[in-house]
């Protein structure tokens, strides 16, 4: 059976081939009624345009690249869901690549996506991302890039961030209001902007309430639970425990609770613990974990919406969106008789 062509559709409707083409490309210079009639007739005749030809005509691939540190992390799975919900609704395909928290792999992924003609990129930098010159070069060439999380607020690019300083402050102040007098912060890598911001919030809260430097410590554990467990065990062995921990994320918080229990130290009776990022398991463990909730799905949506504006040249080259969260107070940080 002979395939239906664009010429056949034009002949059936007694319109030009260019009119049919403009209808499928949703051109501004064709009436809505005419476009709908052409599309309806084409569907009835079984004609579908060549997607590759369409993309070449529009100089767009309708493909967006996303680079994240890891797939299994609940934080990034929610971010990806937000990105996909926006982009797929607009007719884009989303190609996701994982950096394994390695800057070299992240850079290789980004270069691969750019060389494969993505219309734009959303990048969640790895823990070790330091040299950002390549990204700045691409941005200066006009390539659409939006960064999400783990990027300095001062970095001159379009980005979506969480207000880590504010919520690091509130998480710490909650512990202070519970009556804890000696508080340690188990922080992420000092290379990360989010670590600096949360630590800044931690110290600001302590300063506001008159804590001296002897009343707190900032201990760099990184984001991996095994590193946190080793550092907490070291504190126990050295008899250098605080009254409460404010942790960089929920995995570190849960690992901390695990080590404390192994040493017959109960949470929250002996030591309070607060996490960060609000994983689903926070409400399922015992004791239930107090944690700062980040709007991860909304962050993904915001990044996708911002990228669309960048592609359409509707936004500045250095625009920043900062989202807020909430502190979910549960059993792990509530002190008895408070």
From TrEMBL:
Keyword annotations of the record: DNA-binding, Transcription, Transcription regulation
Residue ranges of the TM segments: none
Gene3D superfamilies on file: 3.40.50.2300, lambda repressor-like DNA-binding domains
Any one Gene Ontology molecular-function term assigned to this protein's record: DNA-binding transcription factor activity
SMART domains: HTH_LACI
SUPFAM superfamilies named among the record's database cross-references: lambda repressor-like DNA-binding domains, Periplasmic binding protein-like I
Domain HTH lacI-type as annotated: residue spans: 4-58
Record's protein name: LacI family transcriptional regulator
Species name: Ulvibacterium marinum
Taxonomic lineage from the root: Bacteria, Pseudomonadati, Bacteroidota, Flavobacteriia, Flavobacteriales
């Amino acid at each position: 059976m002979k395939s239906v062509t664009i010429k056949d559709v034009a002949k059936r409707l007694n319109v030009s081939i260019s009119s049919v083409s403009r209808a499928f490309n949703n051109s501004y210079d064709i009436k809505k009624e005419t476009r709908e009639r052409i599309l309806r007739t084409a569907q009835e005749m079984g004609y579908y345009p060549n997607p590759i030809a369409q993309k070449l005509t529009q100089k767009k691939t309708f493909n967006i690249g996303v680079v994240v540190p890891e797939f299994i992390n609940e934080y990034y799975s929610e971010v990806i869901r937000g990105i996909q919900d926006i982009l797929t609704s607009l007719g884009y395909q989303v190609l996701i690549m994982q950096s394994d928290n390695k800057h070299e792999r992240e850079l290789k992924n980004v270069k691969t996506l750019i060389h494969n003609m993505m219309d734009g990129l959303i990048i969640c930098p790895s823990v070790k991302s330091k040299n950002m010159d390549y990204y700045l070069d691409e941005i200066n060439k006009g390539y659409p890039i939006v960064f999400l999380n783990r990027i300095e607020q001062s970095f001159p690019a379009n980005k979506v961030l969480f207000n880590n300083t504010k919520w690091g402050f509130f998480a710490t102040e909650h512990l202070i209001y519970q009556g804890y007098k000696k508080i340690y912060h188990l922080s992420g890598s000092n290379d990360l902007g989010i670590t600096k911001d949360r630590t800044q919030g931690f110290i600001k809260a302590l300063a506001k309430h008159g804590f001296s430097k002897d009343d707190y410590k900032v201990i760099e554990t990184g984001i991996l639970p095994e590193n946190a467990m080793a550092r907490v065990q070291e504190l126990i062995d050295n008899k250098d425990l605080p009254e409460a921990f404010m942790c960089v994320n929920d995995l570190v918080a849960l690992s901390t609770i695990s080590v404390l229990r192994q040493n017959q130290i109960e949470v929250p009776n002996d030591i309070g613990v607060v996490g960060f990022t609000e994983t689903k398991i926070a409400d399922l463990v015992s004791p239930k974990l107090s944690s700062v909730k980040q709007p991860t799905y909304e962050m993904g949506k915001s990044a996708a919406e911002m990228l669309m504006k960048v592609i359409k040249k509707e936004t500045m080259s250095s625009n920043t969106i900062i989202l807020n969260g909430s502190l979910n107070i549960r059993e792990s940080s509530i002190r008895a008789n408070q």
